[in-house]
Amino acid sequence: MVVHSRKGASLSFPRPLAPPASLLSLAPRSSYSPVPDTLLKYREEFPILSTCTYLVSNSLGAMPKGVPGRLQEYADAWRTHGVRAWAKGWWEMPVTVGDVVAPLIGAAPSEVGIVPTVTMAQATVLSAVPITDERDEIVMTELDFPSVRYAIEHLAPKFGARVVVVPSEDGISIDQAALHAAITERTALVCVSHVLFRSAYIIDADALVAHAHAMGALVSLDAYHSVGVIPVDVKRSDVDFLAGGVLKWLCGGPGGCFLYASPAMSERLAPALTGWQAHRRPFAFDTKMDPADGIWRWLGGTPTVPSLYAATEGPRIVHEAGMANVRAKSQRQTALLVELADARGYRLTAPRDAARRGGTIAFDVPHAAAVAQALLARDVVIDYRPGAGIRVAPHFYSTDDEVQRVVLEIDDILATEAWKPFADSRPTVT
After folding, report:
1. Residues 284, 340: one domain?
2. What residue numbers bound the domain in which 334 lies?
3. Is the pTM of this model over 0.85?
């Protein structure tokens, strides 16, 4: 792997396959013992797993081996049909691909649409929510993903609303009682993350929705960090809107974000942020907007067709694996990571309560940003976030040996000072 320093010099490093045996023998022991893992049969579906230790599905899920074939289908359709491909399924794909995602969130067919980004989805929801002199507040939290915060905080004043931000006392969690207290009779919309991106803390969505509805407010959840690693049921929670994406735990690649709108909301509201695909008669090219029925009214302009082809394989595999199975394995492997981090005295920046913990474990180590780059140079793929440290995200296709390896590699990097060549590097996404 080649990393660039701030001065522009290229640095190349060897890629050890495992820490030295001497270090392994001195490593703090865990109570872990191997268990049968039927989910490992899915490893063959993800080619990258044979080339590296891939523990970053909280950022970008591994690509299924069926995706190149799906993209070839797209290319063949464009090549052979040209513009006629729109009439052969392209136009409907935001909804037909949404139907692939729907079972993973407990939604019915035609209740989920694919949109470009979660940020745009949440902005679209905001544009539909009635803002009055009596109800003019949008509730968010300090730990919501910045992109969504940017959009909502800039758009809210244009709609005559103001944003109320619930603080975090520890940088890891949001106190549920404080969140509920912020929701008042002035609240029009609660727009918060189901699972917080830095710490993977799970907000109790069922309790949140029940309280918000009792106060007369609507709820739009950002489920980007929950769908695909923890069970989600929009009908049980009675949430009004839920946005997420296939990029992460659903292994569907960039561009396949989704928006669920409850039938009641689709009947009652229509967004101001809209486009021609949301028109009842799009090919009439009317100059006046006439919103379509159902999820169609929440769509926008021309869909990004290539990403829709890529988006189907991952959700299909995750659904086949079974969310209960995925969640059980995630809880077991994240518990192992907590134990290993505690044995070394690393500062945990993730919830200790397994019931409140999503699929990611974050912990801070000395020189964490440089250590993260050293891990990447060893083909141990994780990411780093300021305020959280190193984020490790095993998924249903991860082995327990891989989960242990990342911590043992950190041991070696710190013991040998292998992080030093990366001290001046500029990490981007990872």
Report:
1. no
2. 2-60+322-422
3. yes
